[in-house]
Bifunctional diguanylate cyclase/phosphodiesterase (Cellulomonas aerilata), 273 residues
Amino acid sequence: AKRAAGGSFVFYDPVTDAARGERLAMITELRSAIDSGQLELHYQPVVDMVTGRAISMEALVRWRHPTRGLMPPGGFIPLAEQTGLIGALTLWVVRRAGEQARLWWQGGIRMPVAVNISVDSLIDPAVAHEVVRLLVAAAGELTVEVTESALMNDRGRQVLADLAAANVSCAIDDFGTGYSALAYLRSLPVSAIKIDRTFITDLAHGAGVDLAIIRSVVDLATALGMEVIAEGVETAEIERKLLDAGVRRAQGFHYARPMPPSDLGPWLTASRP
Ligand code: C2E
Ligand code: CA
Ligand code: CA
Ligand code: CA
C-alpha cells in the first residue's frame, strides 16, 4: 500500500490494474473497429420445421480483431453498452444488415433479416431517431429483436409502437428470462416471441415442466396473434418435442450455425427439399 494525497491508503492491485488497462485499450479499439470495417455480420436462418426451409435470417455481429481473432458479441456488446458505443454499433448493424437484405432480395432470396437492438440504443433519442428512420425505410426487409427489458421502458415501448405503425415487425428475444412482460404483451404491437434457449435445451432431459412452459407460451402467443420461434434447437429429438408442443419455427445448430453471407447461398441451395 502507498499513501495517497489526502492521507488515505490506496492498495496497488496488479491484477485489477492490468484488467482495467486492457478494458481501456479495448474501448479505444472498439471505437475505431466500428469505423474501420472490423465488424462483420453473420446470419443464422430461422426455419419452418415442417418444410425444413428457411423463412428469415438473424444478423449476429462479430468483431474480427487483428490479434484476438473473431470475437463473439458476448465479448464486446456489454462493453459497448457500458461506454456509450452501442449507438454507433447499432447504427452500423442496421445499415449493414439493410445492405445485405437488399442484395438478397434483389437476388431472389426474399427473406426478412432480423437485427438485435439493445434497449440502450432506443433510449438515446438521436440514435433511436436514426435507427427508426433506417428501419422504416427498409420495412419488410428488416425486422427487430428486443429483449423484455425494452418493453419495461417507456421510450422503448414508444419506439416499438412507432415501428409497428410503420409495419416494421418486432420479436421479443430471450422470452422467459427477463421480468414478466406479460402485462405489456397484450397492449404491444409485437409479432413474435422467441423462446429462450435455456427452456429448449432442457427439453432433451425429459423435463415435463419445460414442455408445459412451452405449451403455455404457444397458447399465449396464439391468443395474442403472435408467432413463436424456438431458439437453440440442437437435435432432431428436441425438434420433434417442439412440433408436438405446437411450435413450428426454430433456429439452432441442428439447422445452421451463424454464417457469413458467402456461405449462406450454398446452404440455402442445399437445404431446399
Ligand atoms: P441472441 O440474440 O439470443 O442470439 C442467439 C445466440 O445463440 C447467438 O450467439 C447464436 O450463435 C447462438 N445460437 C444459435 N443457435 C444455437 C444453438 O443451437 N446452440 C447454442 N448453444 N447456441 C446457439 P451469438 O452470435 O454469440 O450472440 C450472442 C448475443 O449477442 C445475442 O443473443 C444477442 O443478444 C447479442 N448480439 C448479437 N448480435 C448483436 C447486435 O448486432 N446487436 C446487439 N445489440 N446485440 C447483439
Ligand atoms: Ca436475437
Ligand atoms: Ca435470443
Ligand atoms: Ca441472448
User: Anything to note?
Assistant: The pocket of C2E (ligand 1) is lined by residues 44, 60-61, 72-74, 77, 93, 116, 118, 173-174, 232-234, 251-253, 258 (CB under 6 Å). The first strand starts at residue 2 and ends at 3. The two ends are 69 Å apart (CA to CA). The chain is about 45% helix and 20% strand.
